[in-house]
Write a structure and sequence with these properties.
Elements: H1 2-18, E1 22-24, E2 36-38, H2 40-59, E3 64-67, H3 75-80, H4 83-86, E4 88-93, E5 100-102, H5 103-109, H6 120-130, E6 148-151, E7 154-156, E8 170-172, H7 177-182, H8 184-190, E9 197-206, E10 221-231, H9 236-253, E11 261-265, E12 275-283, E13 286-297, H10 299-308, E14 314-315, E15 322-323, E16 326-333, H11 334-345, E17 346-351, E18 354-359, E19 370-374, H12 380-393, E20 399-401, H13 407-417, E21 421-425, H14 427-432, E22 434-439, E23 445-449, H15 453-460
Helix pairs in contact: 2-11
The structure holds glycyl-adenosine-5'-phosphate.
Length: 462
């Protein structure tokens, strides 16, 4: 079973490279660990994921608004938030080959429960009790240094021209939500929102992750989709339960199988958190965190109020009550959703004696919605008419034109990138003004009038 799952991961990695979804960063220079680039179809898939999230979190709601805060912010923000002191993972080093490893992950691999939120002392105690069982994954040695906390914030010299910028480092943001907290007042004063309301943001975050493994699951540069919901403290439980349910439903609406999702309750809460659950996805390397849903209390606003000297109290104009809002957060990575969507969609099938790989992505996520083919490349009558259809359909749908190779090969290519429909203009089309439309999952074909194509695809792709 484990081997099958490893094979699946290898197959997905190979497909995403071969078909232009994901490329290792800086590959021609030997690569750059834990950073990836999105290729032509990857950027479409990621954009579609972000579009779905944005639609469900803002467009379909009355009280959630958007924000796009800068990646660079005052370093004071990261001090106030606690990241400069406490945003760390436990690190150990193999004394033989000097590979640096995450201690909690090493323990997890021998089924010993440890949590990145445990103190250095706690985790070292568990480590010492299990040292005999732990081997370095690179060289097999059993000789490790003691664990120490390693801060994950990435530093930069932005705006510092003194030559010694390490003394006053500026940070690339480690999570997008800090940009939301520090703009809470601006949004409240400008956007006609009253509590309860939310602020949603999609953007890049950066972390000096110790171990770079599991493809795009854990990267040093990644995108987060985060929403912070501001509420009266008495409404925390209600809001928390609401967002847990809403976020679970989001994945079901994307077509994820319920058996591939599960809840994980955090046992070791960070000191300010009231409640924290993750939605885990059944990745080929096991159930792992896809999204975090956290009740953060008033910690973030209180910290920034104290540190900046601003007043973050909210005045309820009806009751006259003043309070610092509490926050429920939902936070998920684009890359993790991307990988989960690929795992969910990847299939190997035999249809009519032909082997095929197909990405059965829901049409909303598919990078290309319709592929348009002339039956033969060397027949100008067919090519010109197919091009006309392509130019017309692409006004509304993301389309691709392909006249290369035989039709079977073109179908296989589109199956592998998850295109829900292929359309072929053939010799009969010249007479009956109809084309053949072939559906990806069933591989069935039907003739559709050219004049009906817009309506046909509007309804089939909705
Ligand atoms: N603001 C809360 C926060 O950032 P987190 O659990 O550290 O919480 C939230 O991250 C989500 O961001 C995770 O559930 C995951 O989807 C994504 N994420 C975190 N670190 C990541 C990494 N190194 N690579 C890819 N995605 C990551």
């Amino acid at each position: 079973m484990k081997k099958e799952k490893n094979d699946l991961m290898e197959k997905i990695i190979s497909l995403t490279k071969r078909r232009g979804f994901v490329f290792p960063s800086s590959e021609i220079y030997g690569g750059f660990a834990a950073v990836y680039d999105l290729g032509p179809y990857g950027v479409e898939l990621a954009n579609n994921i972000k579009k779905e999230w944005w639609r469900s979190m803002t467009q379909l709601r009355d009280n959630v608004v958007g924000l796009d805060s800068a990646i660079f912010m005052s370093p004071k923000i990261w001090e106030a938030s606690g990241h400069v002191k406490g945003f760390s993972d436990p690190l150990t080093e193999c004394r033989k080959c000097h590979t640096r490893l995450r201690l909690d992950t090493l323990l997890e691999e021998i089924d010993v429960l440890a949590d990145e939120k445990m103190s250095e002392e706690e985790i070292n105690k568990i480590f010492d009790a299990n040292r005999e069982k732990i081997k370095c994954p690179s060289c097999g040695a059993k000789d490790f240094t003691s664990g120490r906390s390693f801060n994950l914030l990435v530093q930069s010299n932005l705006g510092n021209f003194t030559g010694d910028w390490t003394k006053e480092p500026v940070y690339l943001r480690g999570e997008t939500c800090q940009g939301i907290y520090v703009n809470y007042k601006n949004v409240l004063d400008s956007a006609r929102v009253r509590i309860p309301f939310g602020i949603a943001q999609i953007g890049k975050a950066f972390r000096n992750e110790i171990t770079a493994r599991q493809f795009i699951f854990r990267t040093r540069e990644f995108e987060q989709m985060e929403m912070q919901y501001f509420i009266h403290p008495d409404k925390t439980k209600e809001a928390y339960n609401y967002w847990r349910e809403a976020r679970w439903q989001f994945y079901l609406d994307l077509g994820f199988k319920p058996e591939n999702l599960k809840w994980h309750q955090h046992e070791n809460l960070v000191f300010y958190a009231k409640e924290a659950y993750d939605i885990e996805y059944n990745f080929p390397f096991g159930f792992k965190e896809l999204e975090g849903i956290h009740a953060r209390g008033d910690y973030d606003l209180t910290q920034h109020a104290k540190s900046s000297g601003q007043n973050f109290e909210y005045l309820d104009t009806i009751s006259g009550e003043k309070f610092v809002p509490n926050i429920v957060e939902t936070s998920v990575g684009v890359g993790r959703t991307f990988l989960a969507a690929l795992c969910e969609a990847y299939r190997e099938e035999n249809i009519g004696g032909d082997e095929r790989i197909v990405l059965a992505l829901p049409p909303r996520l598919a990078p290309i919605k319709i592929a348009v083919f002339p039956l033969l490349k060397n027949k100008p009558d067919l090519v010109v008419r197919a091009e006309e259809i392509y130019h017309s359909l692409r006004q509304k749908f993301r389309c691709e034109f392909d006249d290369n190779g035989n039709i079977g090969k073109r179908y296989r290519r589109q199956d592998e990138i998850g295109t829900p429909f292929c359309l072929t203009f053939d010799f009969d089309s010249l007479d009956d003004a109809m084309v053949t439309v072939r559906e990806r999952d069933s591989a069935t074909q039907e003739r559709v009038k050219i004049s009906d194509l817009d309506n046909y695809f509007s309804s089939r792709l909705s």
